[in-house]
Amino acid sequence: MRRKLSGLNMIVFTFSRLSHLLRISGSKASVFRNGTEIKHGAGCCVQLKRFQGMQSNGSMNKKGLQDRQKQQMARGLPKQKPIRDVKQVIVVASGKGGVGKSTTAVNLALGLMAIDKSKSVGLLDADIYGPSVPKLMNLKGNPELNDDNRMIPLINYGVPCMSMGFLVQDASPVVWRGLMVMSAIERLLRQVEWGSLDYLVVDMPPGTGDVQLSITQNIPIAGAVIVSTPQDVALLDARRGAEMFRKLNVPVLGLVQNMSVFQCPNCHHHTHIFGSNGAKQLAETISVKFLGDVPLHLNIREMSDKGQPIVISSPDSPEAEAYRKLASAVIQSLEEHTR
User: Fold this and answer.
1) Closest CA to 225 of 78, 112, 77
2) What are phi and psi of 48, to 5 degrees?
3) I need a surface site. Which of 38, 97, 147, 164 has the fewest CB within 10 A?
4) What is the C-alpha to C-alpha distance for residues 34 and 51, in angstroms, rounded to an integer?
5) How many CB atoms neighbour CB 286 within 10 A?
6) What percentage of the chain's residues is helix, strand, coil (to nearest 5)?
7) How many CB atoms lie within 10 A of CB 217?
8) How far is CA 47 from the centre of its chain?
9) How confident is residue 59, by pLDDT bands cut at 50, 70 and 90?
10) Is the pLDDT of residue 250 over 60?
11) Looking at residues 154-183, what average pLDDT do you find?
12) How high does pLDDT run on average in the chain?
């Protein structure tokens, strides 16, 4: 007696079936590549020689395989198109949440302006499910539309900002499937009147999912900044994030070690709560630049919650100086990658 599979059972069945087929095809492909399975007949000697020739020229075959993989991945992808009047896009990403990525993105944008007053900087909050920029930048309200039906960013501290948080109510969750998220990202990228910007800093959602792929495939990105705490668990995900951008041919500008050290406000004793120099060591391991340390400081948290980023509220503090040094390191890394 036949019965229809429920939605969940169908997904499990389809996934298991697909995995089985991929294992079969993968094993067959590896067998033929290694030449261990030879068909009987007159053509076997020719086939064996062909495999031997391929093995003797392994480096060339490896390069050819990589080129074919890139061609396959490029099929059906949208053609990258720059954002109008935006010179360089910098994405700030992390492998996991809770490492201070959004706070870093906000203070990086303000730090870029602080070290060069002539530069114009915008801030795009691409975290659809958990937008933080409205709170961090003390912005509320809905963006207006210009005559071309393009959204006009909200501005504070001289930085034009756009976020999904401006389009939904504060307590309303964004319960969307992938296609709706991709449509929203497309609108945030293409339907915003940024004006003339030297830098657009993009606060990416945590992880390595659809949003990251959609953004990197749609627009040219000057470089990615990876944020992590020194903790081993966070570093594992930070490494995955860096490798994702490399596979997508996005330059990795470097790693930021956030919450690197805590200084007791009473006795001024330094405590490495999340470990010591983990991100710096990871940067050396994966051969990317180490952009600097940002301390775990009460002032950063309090000012962020008030919507007064530390670079603006306490510009002479050591914490603000850490973000300005980060901005300088990002600019230097950008110049190195564009030479």
Assistant:
1) 112
2) -65, -45
3) 147
4) 7
5) 14
6) 45, 15, 35
7) 14
8) 45
9) low
10) yes
11) 85
12) 81
